[in-house]
Amino acid sequence: MGYSMKIRRNDLVKIMAGHSLYKGRIAKVVSVCKKTRRVRLEGITIKRKIFSSQNKTKNPENKEEGKLLMFHMSNIMFMSSTHNRPVRIGFYQNNIGNKIRIARGKCIRNGLLG
After folding, report:
1. What is the structure's pLDDT at 13?
2. Which string of DSSP letters, residue by residue, matches 54-102?
3. Which pTM was predicted?
4. Among 36, 39, 41, 70, fewest CB within 10 Å belongs to which?
């Protein structure tokens, strides 16, 4: 069963928890998996070397290849471009009935995210 996600593809997020190499980095969301509540972030990869003989045709010099890491939703926070800081996301229903994402938190007067 899928869950509703407040973070969508192409959003900027900040990694708030996890390994010290990745904590505090800001990245763009590449894909979202609703079933496991995890996201893939652009540019944050784990490096691995390929030594197998089957992959010598694909990678003859045994260069390092990167695999995009997946982060759980609880470890990241939406990065607001208007407020220049990580914020929580909520929903607001306008007069027409459309759901609009808004920023929630301290000292946020105009919560619209655009």
Report:
1. 95
2. GGGTT-TT--EEEEEEEEEGGGEEEEETTTTEEEEEEEEE-TTS-EEEE
3. 0.74
4. 36
